[in-house]
Request: fold
Amino acid sequence: MVGAVGSGAIGQSRTQVTDLPPEIAERLSKTEFIVRSYVAGLFYIFMNTARDPAFRANHLLSHVGEDLIQSATSLMTLAMESLGSVAKRELRFLIEASIKLCFVQQQGYNLTVEEKLNKFEYVLWSQKISVQRNLDLRLLPETFRPQLVEEVGRLYGLTSKFVHLTPAQIEQRIEMASRGRRLGREIPAEIDEFNQLISKGLAASLVLLFHSVPTHVAGEWLVKTDGTSHDWYFAGSRFIAAIDSDFDYKHERQDKLVEVQSARAAKVSF
Reply:
């Protein structure tokens, strides 16, 4: 992540992957792939749900979707310019927005957007995410539901540390400087850690978004017409894989169920 800020060249042109050392470029290319995979899933959820004539009038996603795409896309841009802390703030927004959107839609799916804004104003204004404990996570097997709640809480807590300036942040900068690590000179391991973080955060967002729309949306995205699972980066998430398993009842899977289950298990990595 050797970007404009790291080099001190304020105002210079945006950093390109081809400008970077190979070991850094490779990892940032993965960052881009993760983000694009998220946007692809989000776009499908949006477009499939938008087939409902009442979508724009009733569903918060019709108005929040663009914000989610902007924040997701910014993760790549910010990472390229050595702005990892800012990227984590954007990830926090994605998680928070997904929780609130899911809760509000589940509590009043057929209300108009205006009615939702009035009825759930306290939820939308609050910085707390305790409402996630009241979500209906029906697409997940029961054993995975408390795991998701714990994962979302952990990710939100971790990314919240970067919203306000704290002594811990300053101490971390001092410690890094004492080791000779300069801003804009991240090591490959730091980018690997960032990619792991956004993988988990964006997967959690997708799980919540799938629970904010009709059940068939997840099934039509995850299960291909031949019964196999969609070859998608987020198939590597244990939570997305768990949702995929909820559709093992589908007729097109029955003659290859063992194969599907084996391939799904082999992909899980985060």
Observations:
- The chain is about 65% helix and 0% strand.
- Confidence is low (pLDDT under 50) at residues 1-11.
- The first helix runs from residue 4 to 7.
